[in-house]
């Protein structure tokens, strides 16, 4: 079952899955938006001589899919009281499709504030996990 807006969540409930096709055009648009023009992301000639053999997506571009999933699950509570701790495991290449995954690991209330802790991650179409981490969301009782 996917989470609904601010419902009381149970341990084991799944977060919404976000799936994205990574293209070179998206990587270049992200580079422009972020101001990160590292040639490993945008210069195919440079990237061909790197350890990866071609351009790779910005890690934060891929991590943004996690934030999208958490925003769907927790609405304003995510940007207002969320924290994300992640580890980048593997690069993502143009042509890869990435999908988020996550589930509630802990849910408790203290002083009128609910804290929900979720394990989160992103995997490629091959099943390879490219990001792992944990999200903590503070949900006020008024939310």
Which features does this protein show?
5 helices; 29% helix; 143 residues; 5-stranded antiparallel β-sheet; alpha+beta; disordered N terminus; 5 strands
Over the alpha carbons, how many angstroms does the gyration radius reach?
17 Å
Could you tell me the number of beta strands? 5
Largest sheet features: 5 strands, antiparallel
The N- to C-terminal Cα distance equals: 21 Å
Order of strands across the biggest sheet? 1-3-4-5-2
Task: Report what the structure shows.
The protein has 143 residues and is an alpha+beta fold. The chain contains 5 helices and 5 strands, in the order βαααααββββ. It has helices at residues 24-34, 39-42, 44-48, 59-74, 77-81; strands spanning 19-21, 82-88, 97-110, 113-124, 129-140. A hairpin with a 2-residue loop joins β3 and β4 (113-124). The longest helix has 16 residues, at 59-74. The chain is elongated. The relative contact order is 0.22. Mean pLDDT is 92; it is low at 1-6.
Helices and strands, with pairings:
Layout: E1 19-21, H1 24-34, H2 39-42, H3 44-48, H4 59-74, H5 77-81, E2 82-88, E3 97-110, E4 113-124, E5 129-140
Antiparallel strand pairs: 1-3, 2-5, 3-4, 4-5
Summarize the structure.
The protein is 29% helix and 34% strand.
């Amino acid at each position: 079952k996917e989470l609904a807006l601010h419902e009381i969540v149970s341990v084991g409930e799944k977060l919404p899955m976000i799936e994205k096709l990574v293209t070179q055009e998206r990587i270049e648009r992200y580079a422009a938006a972020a101001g990160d023009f590292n040639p490993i992301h945008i210069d195919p000639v440079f990237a061909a001589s790197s350890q990866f053999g071609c351009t790779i997506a910005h890690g934060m571009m891929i991590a943004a899919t996690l934030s999208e999933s958490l925003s769907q699950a927790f609405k304003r509570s995510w940007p207002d009281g969320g924290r994300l701790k992640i580890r980048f495991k593997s690069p993502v290449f143009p042509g890869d499709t990435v999908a988020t995954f996550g589930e509630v690991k802990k849910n408790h209330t203290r002083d009128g504030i609910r804290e929900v802790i979720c394990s989160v991650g992103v995997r490629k179409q091959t099943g390879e996990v490219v990001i792992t981490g944990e999200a903590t969301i503070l949900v006020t009782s008024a939310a």
